[in-house]
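Two proteins were folded this term; both appear here.
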Amino acid sequence: MQDGKYVILCIDDDQDILESLRLVLEANGYIMLGAATGEEGLRIYKQTKPDLLIVDLMMEEVDAGTSFVRELKASGNTAPIYMLSSVGDSLNLSADYSELGLTGVFQKPIDPETLLTILRKKLK
């Protein structure tokens, strides 16, 4: 938390996704930090220790998102992590995302009201 606001780290290689998340999050009182790669996201994570993370499943490599999440889990991360995926519901059916250390999955395009409802519940 910074200045009384929750900090959310969003990692996605699609700048349009990052900008749309920034608009929604900052308009609703959150601080959003953005990264375009898993490596950049890990660097920002270590510097800031965000309150919640939203990570794209497929970035520079097919499994970059899951590799990033495994690295966070190994480092002792306790902040909720949500995967952002274009296969959202399919991922829920085909993989045990909690085994990866994920709190949940958002499907692209992300519905702002769904996002904000979940953030309000998780960040109290």
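Next, the second protein.
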Amino acid sequence: MSADPVPADPDVGSALNLDAFNRALIESVGVGIAIVECDGLKVLFQNKRFEQLFGSPANDITLDQLMQVPDLSGLEPGAVETCEISVKQKRRPVTLAAHFSVHEDDGRHVYMVEMHNITKVKELEYMIESYAKMVEKNERALRREKERAERLLLNIMPRTVYEELKTFGVTTPQRFESASVLMLDFVDFTEMAVSKDPLALISELNDIFTGFDRIVEQFGCERLKTIGDAYVAVSGIPEATPDHAQNIARTALLFRRFIRQRNATREEKWRCRIGIASGPMIGSIVGIQKYVYDIFGPAMDLAARMEQHAEPMEILLPEATADHIRGEFRLEPVAAREVKGFGTLDLFKLVGGDEELGVTLI
């Protein structure tokens, strides 16, 4: 009589299957996992992914032989310590996020070490950061170009006109009932341009015009334009002011003093003629492809005539402008002259005024 077969223990079979399942699960995940003794950091277990990241370590290897281990002495059960480490896999740098946690296994404490490959995330972060820096760099370049364009436009038109052009795309011609204009031209500049080094000459001219610009700004005037060695400034345009004649007179006197002071210390001696006139004018932007803000009216032409009649280092103005500033500035009458387009006019030299009151260059 044969013995009956012993039935298999269902509990034992299910335990083995569950252990095999857990091992298969740990081996299949894309995370490197290792179990490490807290005392001595001996590696007790590692899955295949962990081996791929750190090679196939020999037996009895410790974790600190594979990587730089952070200080885990204060790590409590249930807490997680995280750090980033870099390893090379087939000469390719790989960035890992290492997570350390403490667990109890058969009465001893072990570290659960998880290695997450975050190389793609880091590459994406680097690309985003690089793109953000590139965008920021382009924005800075665009801002500089915008500021440069604004400075260029402000060199050829008053700020209020520029603001109107920027806002509406067009500007409206304006009539100014009373304003003053100054025209300055240098004596013998043509001969200087032929005989002198052009770079040195233009450098000096640029230095002088820069000084003029500061003086113009000091008295609330506007540099309208420069034509070669000629400098044109206005007061009362585009912002009306009752002191336009006084402001342009102060500007003219300080121009002349600036030239005199400069000549005292320089080899090249500059001399200028200055004409001033006052009256109604029209200001507008002309041109489509190349903008220029210009003024029109008899006062503009008369200022040009005064500059032509002036002697070197002389400031000449007609009686109508002299009437605006009489009593505040020292004037000397000049014999009446025939002025082209205006007939015979009584003219005056502006010889001084409040320049002795302590007005200083910026």
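The radius of gyration is 44 Å. The mean pLDDT is 86. These notes refer to the second protein only.
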